[in-house]
Amino acid sequence: MDTPARPATSRIVTRRLSIARPVKRLTVKRLTEVEWLHKRRREAQVHALDGTPADCVVAAMTVLFRDGGKPDLVLSGVNDGRNAAEDAAYSGTLSIAREASFWDIPAIGFSRSKGGTSEEHDVAALAGLIDNLWQRRTAWSREGAYLSVNLPKELPAKIGLATIGRDKIASAADVRSEDGERIVWRIRRGRPHTSRPGDENSLIDAGRIAIVRHCWIDGAPLDANLAADLNAGLFQTSVSPA
Prior knowledge:
The chain is of the alpha/beta class. Helices cover 26% and strands 21% of the residues. The strands form 3 sheets. Strands 3-4-5-9-6 form a 5-stranded mixed beta sheet. Strands 1-2 form a two-stranded antiparallel sheet. Strands 7-8 form a two-stranded antiparallel ribbon. The longest helix has 16 residues, at 120-135.
């Protein structure tokens, strides 16, 4: 979880935590609950952790801020490659922002299409975007929510508010061998690059910054009559003759 230098116009974060290369391969979406984690201070306000991306937020809140307080803003990324559509369920970058939202901290996960540069104009554009979002945080920050921001290859760029599309990665497999009950295979890399008007991919492909707000707390409310229907069906099943 790397955070930028604090702008003169606003107070973005109070401490900073960065991710070192993990000492072992771990699933990026989960938390490490049964293993001892190691945090090392590399320099002032820069720490390294040998856990998963989401562990970084937990380490910040349960170790660095254990005496109280919390960051004003959590930033993750910039991921090398877009995180669109179903990627939100797989991405380690977005898992950091999602974990921060569990702690009621405004959070933004940044990703960028492959092929972009890290020149001064890129850095300046990203810093300006972060400050812009921070200044307007009351318009997007709310309980259970976090932002996913996809950057195009060329910066600076105009901003668009995107819908969540469909572009399933890991949608095919390459089978190397089949021998009876044993199959050796691997997930095929890449994505189909599907898009529909207004979704993340369409904005990114048009050279725009695509912003989506994810919110886990609202869920997908069910029809109020469903419980009554289910209970009625359950009662009919329980009293029906064998």
